[in-house]
Design goal:
This protein has 166 residues and is of the alpha+beta class. Helices cover 18% and strands 40% of the residues. The chain is built from 3 helices and 10 strands; from the N terminus they run αββαβββαβββββ. Strands 1, 2, 3, 4, 5, 6, 7, 8, 9 and 10 form a 10-stranded mixed beta sheet that branches. The longest helix has 17 residues, at 6-22. The protein starts with 5 loop residues before the first helix and ends with a strand.
Length: 166
């Protein structure tokens, strides 16, 4: 019986790991809902948006039986020239009102803790022939203490893409 060499073993293990990672659940991402657009929002520094600390939120994160990393995530909206945290979302699109995480809050919270440049990928998505994901709109927002200092919207022509996702 022939014993496989180290390279064959390495290739076999690599193939198994690649297949397993392809089946992994995509991490939850912070959401953006404004101007009849829905999408994801992230900062240049991190893919997850920071939110005020809450022991209830930490407990929810530990107890959330979810195969996706990152939940619950914030849902943010633009209004009155500022970025607002309006609710949370967990696995299965379960909506969590802010009042459940922050009991003294009944409405949205102005995101005064946020500073920097944030990107929103919104609208329909499509996959180009080379496999690159494109979004209908890309919005760059410069935020200082929750207030919008500057915003630029780039519309992308997705009509020429191979397949539309949503």
């Amino acid at each position: 019986m022939r014993v496989p060499d180290k390279m064959q073993i390495f290739k076999g293990i690599s193939a198994i790991l690649l297949c397993a990672s392809a089946l992994a659940t995509e991490p939850l991402q912070d959401q953006f809902e404004s101007f009849d657009l829905k999408g994801t929002i992230f900062s240049e520094a991190s893919l997850s948006m920071p939110v005020p600390q809450s022991s209830i939120l930490l407990t929810r994160r530990r107890e959330d039986r979810c195969s996706a990393m990152g939940g619950p995530v914030g849902v943010f909206s633009l209004r009155d020239g500022a970025l607002w945290l309006v609710r949370f979302r967990s696995c299965g699109s379960d909506e969590i009102p802010l009042s459940e995480i922050y009991p003294d809050t009944h409405d949205a919270i102005k995101a005064e803790w946020l500073n920097g440049i944030f990107t929103v990928l919104a609208g329909k998505q499509c996959v180009e022939a080379g496999g690159k994901l494109r979004h209908e709109k890309t919005i760059k927002i410069r935020i200082k203490h929750g207030n919008v200092e500057n915003m630029a919207v780039k519309a992308d022509d997705i009509l020429h893409c191979g397949s539309t996702i949503n």
